[in-house]
Amino acid sequence: MHLILFISLASMFVTLLNSYLTFYHVQKKLLIEQAVKVNSSYSSKLSVTVDNFFSMSEEQLSYSAKLIASHIQSGNLRPLQAELQRIHQLSHAFNSMVVVTEHGQIIAASPTSLNLTGITLTSNRHLTTLREKRFFISAPYTSLSGNYIIFISYPIADDVGNYLGYIGGSLYLNSRRILNEFMNTQFSNDSFNTYVIDKEGTIIYHRDTGQIGKKINDSHILSSIANQDKGSFMMPDEQGILSPASFIRTQKAGWIIITQQSFHSLEEALNDVMISVLKQGTPLGILTLLALSILAYYIAKPLRQLSKSASSMDQLGVISKIRAVKAWYLEVEQLKRVLLMGTVLLHKRIGRLSSEAHTDPLSGMLNRRGMQESMEEIRSEYKKISVIAIDIDHFKVINDSFGHDVGDEVIRKLSQQIRKNFRKTDLVCRIGGEEFLILLPGADIHVATVIAERLRNNVANTVYMPGYRHHQVTISIGVTTFNPQKSALDIAIKTADNALYKAKNGGRNQVVVEYLSDDISLAQH
Question: Which segments constitute the GGDEF domain (predicted)?
Answer without folding.
Answer: 383-516
